[in-house]
């Protein structure tokens, strides 16, 4: 499975440089990108699925449910502000294109904007995500292939300024889930090439901009 993985920075070259012949079967987005850009990418690639988590500059997507083809919020029909056809993996475990993807969006809280969490709030959300992944694994024996986050783990490619500190809770999440990959955005490299990190067997990559990554799905993991 070859995926186009994007976050935070629009790559102008993609507007004219991708199409159905690019051999990409999935778009993964780690937040803070215009939703119409994500829609363009999926359409240009022939309608491939798009799995995303929101970043701290994205609108609030919480509280939406879908019923009978309509999006509801607080029981009332409301237009969903997310990308058309996109799969919001924030706080969820989803199976797409043979991959099991767990998502945890948002950044450390630094003002009153949406998709920001204190360390304690994100830790509670992370525990719920771990429980979901464990239930899935008990049911079918498959573990998580990709942990898709907006912010990085604390001390693993993050920064010291308050808005760009990583989340402490991602360390126990990786320990419990043991994903092959943790893909995050939020930390702009500003022309540098950020190095890839390791947390045990998990490869941690800053995917700001665009990356093409080959994934090997695991049917059953021990």
From TrEMBL:
InterPro entries per UniProt: Calcineurin-like_PHP, Metallo-depent_PP-like
Chain ranges passing through the membrane: none
Occurrences of domain Calcineurin-like phosphoesterase (ranges): 31-190
UniProt protein name: Metallophosphoesterase
């Amino acid at each position: 499975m070859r995926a186009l993985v994007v976050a935070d920075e629009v790559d102008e070259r993609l507007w004219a440089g991708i199409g159905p012949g690019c051999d990409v079967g999935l778009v993964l987005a780690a937040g803070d990108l215009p939703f119409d850009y994500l829609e363009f990418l999926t359409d240009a690639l022939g309608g491939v699925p798009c799995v995303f988590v929101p970043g701290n500059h994205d609108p609030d997507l919480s509280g939406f449910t879908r019923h009978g083809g309509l999006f509801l919020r607080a029981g009332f029909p409301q237009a969903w502000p997310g990308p058309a056809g996109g799969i919001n993996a924030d706080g969820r475990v989803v199976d797409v294109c043979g991959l099991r993807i767990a998502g945890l969006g948002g950044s450390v809280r630094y003002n009153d904007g949406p998709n920001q969490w204190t360390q304690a709030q994100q830790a509670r959300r992370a525990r719920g995500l771990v429980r979901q992944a464990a239930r899935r694994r008990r049911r079918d024996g498959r573990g998580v292939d990709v942990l898709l986050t907006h912010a990085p783990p604390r001390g693993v490619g993050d920064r010291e300024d308050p808005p760009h500190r990583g989340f402490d809770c991602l360390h126990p999440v990786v320990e419990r889930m043991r994903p092959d990959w943790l893909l995050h955005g939020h930390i702009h490299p500003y022309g540098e090439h950020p190095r890839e990190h390791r947390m045990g067997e998990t490869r941690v990559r800053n995917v700001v901009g665009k990356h093409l990554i080959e994934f090997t799905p695991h049917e059953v993991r021990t």
